[in-house]
Design goal:
about 850 residues; mainly alpha
Amino acid sequence: MEHVPPPAEELARLDRELAELDARRAQLLTRRAWLLAALRPPAPTAAPGWNPSAWGAPPPGRPGAPAQPWGYVPKQPSAPRSAQNVLLTLGGLLLTVAAVAFTLVSWGSMGIGGRSAVLAAVTLGALIAPAVLLRRGLAATAEALAALALALTLLDVYAVHAVAAPDTDGLGFTAVASAVLAVLWAAYGLALGKLRLPLPAAVVLAQWPLLFWAWAAGAPTLVVGWALLATAVLDGVIALWGKGPGVRVTACVGGSAMGFSALMVGLALSTTASGPLGAAAPGALLLAAAAAALAGAWRAPKGFARTGGVVAGLAAVAAVGGVPAAALSDGWRVLAYLLCGLALTGVVRAGLPRDAARGVLAASGAVVAGALVWALPSLAAVLLGPVTLLSDVWAGSPEGFRSALGSTLPWSELAAAPVVLALVAGLLGSAHRWWPSVVRIAAPLCAREGTPKPDAASAAAGTPGAAWTAQPSAGAPWYTVAGAGARRRPSGATLRGAAGAGALALGWGALLLAGVVLDVPYAVAVAGETALVGGLLALAVRDAGSGRGASAVPVTALVGAVSGAVSLGLLSLASEGASYAVFGALTMLFAGAAVRVGAEVPRAVFAVASAVWGTVLTGFAGRSLDLDPHEAAPLVLLVPALTVLLGARLRRNPVVLPVELTGALGALVAVGLAVSDAPFLALVLALCGVLAAGAAVRPERRPVAGCLAAALFVLATWVRLAASEVSFPEAYTLPVTVPALVVGVARRRRDPEASSWTAYGPGLAATLLPSLAVAWTDTDWFRPLLLGVAALVITLLGARYRLQALLVLGGVVLALDGLHELAPYVAQVAGALPRWLPPALAGLLLLVVGATYEQRLRDARRLKDALGRMR
């Protein structure tokens, strides 16, 4: 035999070898460059004061070092500062520990004069020393002594309270002491402006006076909230006008913590108030916090301004909405907050800075999103609740909508959910309807800095996205050019479509929830949901392919129609009449939508859904006739038969393939229903073969459907023979095999390019496979011997005439027949072997296969190519 590989394999092998040569060449070149650098003599030392970069020459480098850019000037080595910082830190820490030990241990052994003298001397020395050190340029040492001085002042305060004022209230004394220390350290930091520690330390100390004062005075929680808010306002002032980044960062952190605490106090008091009057005082606290945040956002940088706007908006909603919410029941409070959140959209006319206004709008969106998150779980319960009816189909019509859902949700507390969804849907729908007006109003906030506002023409066209996109100025970098991967905002058409889609989805959900909240009768609920599905289908058919640029609306309508139909179908399972009415209506509605819609994808979806609903209807017919599942299986084949007829009528229409695949799934369901009874299974398989043969009449379906029909007919024959307990299937299959092979030979003579599977596959399989199945249960040796001889002859004929079907079928049957004959001996040998030997042999086999994996892969590819060249 010749072992010349095919051209494709030889070309791939040459490509691999060339790639290996290229990789080796690159490796050798890299090594050569390194050797040249190592042998190069070192560069001469430059004269003192001569700088090569000043003359445009690159600096010399060591061999093998990466090349430096032209004009590079190496930095002069500086004194290491890390060791100095460690020494100063350790020294300050040890002095602080010594001062603490002195104050706690040795303080009591000295008189009042000695105590005062020691404290005054040490503290004064620690405070004066940094000034002297700064004049001499020892800034790090001055910082270390300043930290020591801070610790000493804290110890002085502790000592004064322990000796001079032991009977004073600890909280009140701490409030006064922290205020005094904050003022002193602020003055000290301003006096010695080069020190970085005193001013941030003063800011930290300033966080506690008001809080500890309110705590010491036993003030109510609301007063504590005011104290926190006042401290946060002070931090905000320091953050805006403070000196140095350390002071501002410390003030930002402290103000965020104190402001958040104040907001939480106000929110907790507002939500737990017993009435509107009780919620007014916490509302005032929240409004003050909103005003403070908005004032800070007015002057803060971009990112902080948006954050301030968000905080101001949320605090205003909590303040204003908390007053009416306190007078409402739990189920309606969310509506009060939602209305206040929607009122925040008026900020577009308030003249606020752009970033602050955007933050307030973001707060409005957050409130709306929170309301929707509260309402959407109840909508999910409405859509998924009918799943419980699957366990008891046709048990009888329930009294109301709620009882059909099987949900335990407190619907009385969710009475505001449909109102929330309807309100947001109405606003989104209004925005979708009057989009040009929305664009003109929101243009000042949506335009970027340095870009012109959208003109009237673009606003009227509803496409403001082009005007909102930043236009690169002259000399701008390449990455700011629109269309070159720059970040773009959604177009106006996309935003408008999203608004319309949201309005449609939320409006549909509001109607569904309204039926549950009102607990309408079951028949009204079914009729209402059917009407909603029909309306969604009509909207999807009208808007699909309309070219309006609002593709989100028909897509949302399509998804809503399909999901609503599924939920409606589950809901109808409670009653037999409702099931027939609903699924019949769904079948006609989706079929009509498939006929009327112009776009291909929606048409395919509608047609597939119609086929599914029709298949369910045929299943209902079998249940109504009290048929067993296997007896109802032929009825399920009605829809697959209709799909075959529809395919023959529409031919190459794009919708035909998905519909036929849906019919094939229905046929598979029928086969599954008939599995429990062999005669009915044979009948169903034969009917499926008839349908496949009908589809094979069309030339475009013949390659697949023809083979499938032959396989189904053969399988139906086998099942029928097995059901009749035939022990000699060859007597029934050989009369079929011989004419089939004669027809195959005639086909091959007329068309030499015809596949051997089409010509000989059905005939050979009709006899070989049933005989193999019987041979596996036959204890005699005669049948396996004859089957093995026949399979050997067929395999040799396939190898001789290069026929793939004969080679594969004969080889598989021969291998399985031989395995059947060897199985008893293999089992006997396996029982005699030690238990550790099979795993060891398996591991050895895996190692051998892994070591020769590439060779095995090439052998498998050769075998695949050889089989592929056969007919």
